[in-house]
Design brief:
Length: 396
């Protein structure tokens, strides 16, 4: 096990402190009702710990991409209401993230109270990471706590800049996310099995380069498998491919050979032609993809092969859908893989990526796996082995 390298809320005295707690509550709503509250629930241990230890908890989050302007549809107000219910405690709401009124509200809070600030991305200084903005934001506080794993890959004021102005430590969710992903990628219990899918091979190639040397089995699905099929001489017809990455795919195949990794690409796929309700669907072997058709999912034989080669894994990492799961007709491969991971009883199973986490939640495997990451881009950065600005800037 590697240890978390940064200070956490357990390493400092939080009692009687005014705390700025950055979280990632970037959750969509339907007329003010939150659609998926996983990120809120995952932040509760940190909030409860701070309250129990008599801190003033002022929570800061972004929602959506308001581009520095007020946008009522992206207000944090419905989040405050939902959080109140989850905590069974009033969460007050400040309709500004800083300024005189907000400062007064904060100074009049009792220890143990909770306040949620308005969407931090309503201010340009946030995404521009302006020092003057970070400094203003920091003024009412004694301590900064980062529990916003899903935003920690961003060089933004409330993630990175703020740490210049306040002593800065990690919350429990950040610690958990980073520890689990770093342990699974850097010092995994072997055999390590990896399932990689998704659309853009340009996004995924560095994940492959980082993980292959440590892996035992690598299963590739999704659109990125098309480029691997092409690299191996198959005709993938009208499928989504990135021809500029054929050489990179060949290098990965070589690296896998050198590293003694069992590399498995689809032998059977679901293909389609036509659009909408008019489309035709077939299951074919990868050397039988008809001209004009495109691959949109992995086939049953591919899933069986993946299962067979991964079943003895002690650590499993999954990122990237196996097909265009947004359309029900092509969601089966991804859902089957999710269920397979849930059923394999692997000691450590980690699922990362925005879309991949969404599928895992649809498949209801949360209780059967070790961890479903709450961060899309941030978990991809850890899979690539890159440092995250929001973590590097915390106290050692
Ligand atoms: P994540 O957000 O979990 O990292 P990605 O962003 O890499 O996942 O990939 C998600 C996208 O990949 C989905 O929108 C899905 O439709 C697309 N995708 C997967 N397989 C295919 C395919 N065969 N053809 C086209 N798109 C695909
Ligand atoms: Mg994505």
């Amino acid at each position: 096990m590697t240890n978390f390298r940064k200070k956490t809320i357990k390493d400092v005295d939080v009692s009687n402190k005014a705390i700025l707690l950055r979280v990632d509550y970037n959750v969509q709503d339907d007329s003010g009702v939150l659609l998926d509250d996983l990120r809120l629930r995952e932040s509760l241990p940190t909030i409860k710990y701070l309250i129990k230890n008599n801190a003033k908890v002022v929570i800061c989050s972004h929602r959506g991409r308001p581009r520095g302007e007020f946008n009522p549809a992206l207000s944090n107000l419905p989040v405050a209401k939902h959080l109140s219910q989850l905590l069974n405690q009033t969460v007050n709401f400040a309709d500004n993230a800083f300024g005189d009124v907000t400062s007064k509200t904060i100074s009049s809070m009792s220890f143990g109270d909770i306040l949620l600030l308005e969407n931090i991305r309503f201010y340009k200084g946030e995404t521009e990471n302006l020092d003057s903005f970070a400094e203003k934001l920091s003024e009412p506080f004694d301590l900064y706590v980062n529990d916003a794993f899903g935003a920690s890959h961003r060089e933004h004021a409330s993630i990175a800049g703020i740490t210049k102005y306040l002593p800065s430590v990690a919350g429990f969710l950040l610690e958990k996310e980073v520890s689990i992903l770093e342990n699974a990628t850097k010092v995994p219990e072997k055999p390590l099995g990896i399932i990689l899918g998704g659309a853009k091979i340009s996004d995924k190639i560095r994940i492959l380069e980082n993980l292959i040397p440590n892996a035992n089995t690598l299963c590739i699905g999704g659109a990125i498998a098309n480029t691997f099929l092409l690299a191996q001489g198959y005709d993938v017809a009208d499928s989504l491919v990135d021809e500029s990455f054929i050489d990179a795919a060949i290098n990965c195949i070589d690296l896998a050979k050198k590293s003694n990794v069992d590399l498995i690409i689809p032998d059977e796929v679901i293909v389609t032609v036509g659009q909408g309700a008019e489309n035709l669907i077939r299951t074919v072997a990868v050397d039988q993809i008809p001209a004009g058709w495109r691959v949109l999912d992995v086939g049953p034989s591919t899933i069986a092969k993946f299962r067979h080669s991964l079943q003895d894994s002690k650590t499993l990492i999954w990122n990237g859908p196996m097909g265009m799961f947004e359309q029900e007709q092509f969601a089966k491969g991804s859902l089957e893989i999710a269920k397979m991971i849930g059923s394999l009883n692997v000691p450590t199973s980690v699922i990362g990526g925005g879309e991949t986490a969404a599928i895992a939640n649809i498949a209801k495997i949360k209780d059967q796996v070790t961890h479903i990451s709450t961060g899309g881009g941030a978990s991809l950065m850890l899979l690539k082995g890159d440092p995250l600005p929001g973590i590097e800037s915390l106290m050692d």
